[in-house]
Amino acid sequence: MTDPVLSVRDLRTHFFTRAGVVKAVDGVSFDLAAGEILGLVGESGSGKTVTGFSILGLIDAPGRIVEGSVMLNGTELTSLPEAQLRARRGRDISMVFQDPIATLNPMLTIGQQMRLAINAHEKLGRRAAEARAAELLTQVGIPSAEARLRSYPHEFSGGMRQRVAIAIALLHRPSVIVADEPTTALDVSIQAQILYQMRDLAAQTGTALIWISHDLAVVSSLATRLAVMYAGRIVEQGPTATLLRDPRHPYTAGLIASLPATSKPGEPLAQIPGTTPSLLSLPPGCPFAPRCARQTPACTEEPALTIEADRGWRCFHPVGQMHEEPA
């Protein structure tokens, strides 16, 4: 088995506010192999986006990484000086944001922006840089790529702008791309096209992807492996097909049951009762216990990680196994 390109261990990112300490990421661990697509899923506020930002060292005050390791190709990112970390962003690890406007400058043409991104890490002549930029635009499905280099962001549709953002992230063939819900605001058909192209690009280039999404249906069509987050923690992870067919954590099972595809026509969608807890005042033990039909007094303790073959979960009473009924 080859070494992972990215290894995250016990990552903890806290925000120190006047109201208290928000444990946005609380002990996250996973590995990512070359060409692998990891889907990071969960409800809003589960810590998915903060995990992605933490990996790239993009956490601003009052937040900071308080513990843990982020190893990229054998280099520890959390201890790198800012200048060295900045030199690796875009070259070795990139991010695609939910809103492409966060990436694109409205005052510059697409070609100018892509040349700037290239020259930030390597010096290429204008023609060579434009040739690479056009090649990447073609790969992400933008027609007449050479001509579109002279266009401004406002001349592209939302879907096309997101393709440009993805092309910029791919310019230096990074080992890892973190994509933060990049297709959420797009039309379903455009979303499907981008997902298909990203799957192909990962296979062709060997770039690994972390695809952050609250939409389990979308990410399960793309990811080779899923990590399900709740209240800042990964509560279950494993191969996509395995988790969808046979979930162990009640939260994972609840997310799957709430998908429209799992309900009969005319019947109401299943829902997970209650709401996500405040990260300022998490319950003791398992944070999902107050919403869980399988909770018992044991759930007031922190569940240990159970590993079975190529999957793992944190639950005293896994789905599909016998458990003590609540008193």
From TrEMBL:
It is a peripheral membrane protein. The lineage of its organism: Bacteria, Pseudomonadati, Pseudomonadota, Alphaproteobacteria, Rhodobacterales. It is found in: Cell inner membrane. Its main location: membrane. One of its GO terms (biological process) is transmembrane transport. Keywords: ATP-binding, Cell membrane, Membrane, Nucleotide-binding, Transport. GO terms for cellular component: plasma membrane. Pfam families: ABC_tran, oligo_HPY. This is ABC transporter ATP-binding protein. Residues 6-256 form the ABC transporter domain. SUPFAM superfamilies: P-loop containing nucleoside triphosphate hydrolases.
